[in-house]
């Protein structure tokens, strides 16, 4: 399987090369040359199998020829062995045809662990086999950073630099990143928004000299392997509800569009999905795009679901590439327009193709709190604000299609966002035992301006320092 860039001018790569490269040299995102198809019998055969076995079956066609199958199996088993639920991603019921896929049983309590625990092992395997090192530079609105740090801390082949928007993540999210003392982990509070952090990462990748000098690697969902690993739980959850004999819909709390794109990929692989519902908070660029055909960035709004306080949804570029019939020149045109004017307009055909498969629902702040309270009242379960946005969108989808089971992706544990939960329910969601003393651990981070040359200098100096990574506690 070869991987091609959405912008069409970067070389095609193997799975392992795309894994290490992350972003294409042309600024584009890698995706497979074609999507492997699973037969209905193969999909039906997933019923009752362990999560790791389904992961191996789903991921193997993407990986074959680059990593030995037994090695892949061992990495998958180790990755999901660290989860605190035997099902890894269990499904529970919230109401009539309304289901919750619990994606927060990994070490950092968010869906990012499902991919990142595997990605860490894959990268370590490939880098060690090649005798190479890499410098991971990642942007986070709160969850990717913690998951990446948990997956890569202490690994001898990598240094990790994570940029988060200063003051715009929850205390628990920040502390999950800043309290890790491993020498290869460097947490940066960037004076800006998540979009600034993501732009910074793309800018650093775009500086070829810097990229080559430090062997930059990306672990955001710009990395195809992240998306691929997230495809797995669409299969396990849909099969648990009767797929492929029964169609299901998914409501996906959406920011960078990686998670819902994984659902679209599952559909290309043969999973019968009825609708993919994009659930956004007040940062509703995707809802507006589906309504009007115009993708137009605005000012980011701080919400109680901060991980989705995002304007530029990176992975939407992958969907555009597909909706435009894999026309890389068209994608380049749209992305140039985005860079120059902060907007672009979709042509009628691609817009119709997107509307054919996706719905988009905005769930505001009041509704989000009401959803948290309602779910608590009706089921005695606490859900986090991102998941609540998904539940709100799922209810809208169910109003139009009552008979289609709708699965909400539960993307984070409520204990990551205690303030929002307490406001809505009066309940305090406790952190699990391994994080119980998080609030009293010392923090290590540096605050940097939103200036690419300063961030590049920081990375250079840190890596060239005699005791690279020596930590200082932040005041
Ligand atoms: C808790 C949570 N929910 C939802 C999202 C949105 O996911 P995506 O960026 O893949 O659309 C994120 C961040 O990405 C998140 O951290
Ligand atoms: N919400 C994310 C934003 C980055 O998303 P990614 O999936 O592209 O890594 C976060 O928590 O950091």
TrEMBL record:
Cited PROSITE patterns: DEHYDRATASE_SER_THR
Catalyzed reactions per annotation: O-phospho-L-homoserine + H2O = L-threonine + phosphate
GO molecular function ontology, one term from the record: pyridoxal phosphate binding
Names of required cofactors: pyridoxal 5'-phosphate
Key words, A-Z: Amino-acid biosynthesis, Lyase, Pyridoxal phosphate
Domain Threonine synthase N-terminal: 2-80
Enzyme class, first EC level, given as a word: lyase
Domain of life: Bacteria
Gene3D superfamilies from the UniProt entry: 3.40.50.1100, Threonine synthase, N-terminal domain
Residues the record lists as N6-(pyridoxal phosphate)lysine modifications: 112
A single BP term in Gene Ontology: threonine biosynthetic process
EC number in record: 4.2.3.1
Pfam families reported for this sequence: THR4_C, Thr_synth_N
Pathway involvement of the protein, from the record: Amino-acid biosynthesis
PANTHER family: THREONINE SYNTHASE FAMILY MEMBER, THREONINE SYNTHASE-LIKE 2
Family, as annotated: Belongs to the threonine synthase family.
Name of this protein: Threonine synthase
Organism (species): Methylovirgula ligni
Lineage of the organism: Bacteria, Pseudomonadati, Pseudomonadota, Alphaproteobacteria, Hyphomicrobiales
